[in-house]
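Re: export button greyed out
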Amino acid sequence: MKALKFAKLDSDNRTIVQVGPVQIGGPKIAVMAGPCAVESREQLLLIASTLKSLGADMLRGGAFKPRTSPYSFRGLAEDGLKLLAEARELTGLPVVTEVMDARDVELVAGYADMLQIGSRNMQNFTLLHEVGTYRKPVLLKRGLSATLEEWLLAAEYILAAGNNQVVLCERGIRTFETWTRNTVDISAIPAVKELSHLPVILDPSHGTGRWKMVSPVAKAAVAAGADGLLIEVHPDPEYALSDGPQSLTPENFARLISELGPLAQAVGRTAGAQF
Amino acid sequence: MKALKFAKLDSDNRTIVQVGPVQIGGPKIAVMAGPCAVESREQLLLIASTLKSLGADMLRGGAFKPRTSPYSFRGLAEDGLKLLAEARELTGLPVVTEVMDARDVELVAGYADMLQIGSRNMQNFTLLHEVGTYRKPVLLKRGLSATLEEWLLAAEYILAAGNNQVVLCERGIRTFETWTRNTVDISAIPAVKELSHLPVILDPSHGTGRWKMVSPVAKAAVAAGADGLLIEVHPDPEYALSDGPQSLTPENFARLISELGPLAQAVGRTAGAQF
Amino acid sequence: MKALKFAKLDSDNRTIVQVGPVQIGGPKIAVMAGPCAVESREQLLLIASTLKSLGADMLRGGAFKPRTSPYSFRGLAEDGLKLLAEARELTGLPVVTEVMDARDVELVAGYADMLQIGSRNMQNFTLLHEVGTYRKPVLLKRGLSATLEEWLLAAEYILAAGNNQVVLCERGIRTFETWTRNTVDISAIPAVKELSHLPVILDPSHGTGRWKMVSPVAKAAVAAGADGLLIEVHPDPEYALSDGPQSLTPENFARLISELGPLAQAVGRTAGAQF
Amino acid sequence: MKALKFAKLDSDNRTIVQVGPVQIGGPKIAVMAGPCAVESREQLLLIASTLKSLGADMLRGGAFKPRTSPYSFRGLAEDGLKLLAEARELTGLPVVTEVMDARDVELVAGYADMLQIGSRNMQNFTLLHEVGTYRKPVLLKRGLSATLEEWLLAAEYILAAGNNQVVLCERGIRTFETWTRNTVDISAIPAVKELSHLPVILDPSHGTGRWKMVSPVAKAAVAAGADGLLIEVHPDPEYALSDGPQSLTPENFARLISELGPLAQAVGRTAGAQF
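Workaround output, generated via the alternate export path:
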């Protein structure tokens, strides 16, 4: 593989990506949490405040939703972006949200602190180039059947366009196993650490598709060296417009955060609220 | 799965897609052939004339090339489109070529007779919607790890936007096997015939990644009921800028075409030049 | 890969395996058909006579059945073998049946004309060695996730033990696709032809898991160069003790056989009854 | 899935498997370590003493080796078993080793403390039944492409034969990714905990195929709730007769053990030597 180019490096020449007050790739595990989709103002502000109080570092939520079927709920679009910005004002949590179309990058970048490229767009090369020309950090999810090499080369599209604030996100790959929604490739964490200087996080919600597995797999990622987590939390998963079965309740999220602290410490890092 | 909507149907209520003088989904196997990428005027006009004389029905060739690495040859862009249009004038062969960006659909549609959506963009939903708003036939390749359901629902994005001239193209899926570039899912041909009324063709070049396997797998597809083939042919595969190892020489293409005739007849269809 | 060793070769140095009066690897497509499991004397003798009259070349049927769950029907064991031998007496069709345990090879070889090694035992190396020490032809099914190299090296275990009468059987590999029971790797047919001198056949019944797909995929295999087919036929698939959904009725089998004739001819071979 | 049957249960009704003085499924992480294959007396006794002093709980080592090619080193057979027994006498470490043939179960059970069923034999049903009739604990590795359901049902074959001392071992599944030898399915750990009462351990050596990844993935498994680890350690990996690239040196194993302690504590368990 070609050598990757980098920006701000720590003492081991690793990239640290700065999103507002949050560092990804530093000693603290960056926990990004929130609902799969922004559904309403009430829902979003409530969950954002709760997450802030529970120790989340960033707010996630989809305004543009890629859906397998054209007849599924596809997000609130710009209205959703406005609500995300409002939630940031309220809580101070930086916002990460997906952009699906190169023509929308400017719009989304006007509201979000970090631009997410979803799995289905990992090799949407014109979109990669476009976010590469902006000065916003990018969260690049691994494609459903992307090899490590393809994933890192997709990141290279963004770096080559001039933007070196890229965080990689493992989210499970597609295999024959049907018990889980996808198969989390836990080895991708140390592999990215070895092959690249970019930070890497895990999305255990999409990775497993089952809320009961989110906590053990999130803990596994931290033990394996992940720099952060992307977790779906919904005030009422049963009524979520998408991805309810894989969303944590605030109670379960609180328990996970409290368990992450000692675990992070055991691998020389920190996690959760610090008082 | 939801029911699909259709256009012009034959007596079994199957869609026939018309691309210039060529029918896809009718009794004749539609053979689309040409180089992976348009490399030069000389190369393209030469191969196009040769293909016409050998009995190809349509000309394929990439002007915008999706490449895993940003440092690979990415195509001649509009210059490539102009050459494709010139090759059509010369030979009468309708042209199919890939569009990768929703912003380029109008440009590509101005030159091409059929718009190809590549595997990596099968779930680029904004691009699907965009080609759905044009009155050009679309060739929708299956994603590298797309289920049949996801593939048909991607087609549904195009249909739902108003364009019912869609042809599906199986091109191999990603599995553990490394001897072939991908694993051709031959069952996808009868599956699409059962689940949908859209025509379905096979790309044995990407499907196998090895020119020696292109002919036997192309014949398998016809025997299984495919409505057409998409085949890479290059005058000098060794010097191709991309996909040389999977490209047929004109001689091998001629042999394949001559073998397809009796085979098509054995399953009640026709193939190749008819005199 | 290491070079493979061979026995009786045709003019292109390809192995032809002789099973009673049947040649596998010669000009005629060898069609092996029968129920998944031997269920009763009445069922077996009836279906065997029917298959003989419809042009099948060999009788298949399981006496020892490998089952995922220990609580499923696991076959009639030696009673099943005796019924298979009786069916052979009645019809003249040579019998192929599975052996699962190295300790049973002598027993099974006493009744059967060809020993089948199932997918789950493809790397049961002691069983491979054992059948390699007998002078009975072996049908070696590809493992559910075996690479071509592993499959050919499994055959090498049998050859290395002294038995060169081996036929390879592609039966679908395990992928993410769930519409079909497995994914038939059609490229395996030409790959085996290129990498080995052993004959290769296809099992479209296990390969697809759906009877409607058996015929188109069987035809694809013949077009791709397969030397034979292994097909489940049951007089009453709805009441089969196993694999009913993928079994052809005698009527559908008759139709397939009648369609194979012209197709085989189109690729320079023959198939079905010859009068 | 059918309900599983169990033996000695702890307070949460979970099975604890006793192997000599070692408990698997209790509060302590059981670390089984040793060379892939028993190569010589000197090698084995040296590494066994070293492992004992570093805090390993059990000794692993292959006497019968399943090899893809019949021409690879296939183990020392009974001589290897004798050396394993000698190493146990010397160190007090219970021994786990693979049995590949139902006819060898009595032989292997005469020397080993725990019988390992390898991945390629996970659905060798007659072997499963045979080890089910002995009173020795069994380590059942997951097949290369076995679903969770198939794996648990394979365990059920052993339980149904009367032996309830079964430990499950995740060892990576086969996917399209080629950077790692296999893809560790980390979710299998919490899945087994939810679906079954049997203990579950991880083999990060085969799971990754790269020694640099063994430690991070081993730690991930402990964080996810695994009851033990199976790790290849070789005094001189470069000269190992098999699996050198994935073997830890004693130094790296010592570092891993020292890191496991605090990690295990963070999830309420213990690991390594206790003084």
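Chain A has one domain: 17-266. The button fix ships in the next patch.
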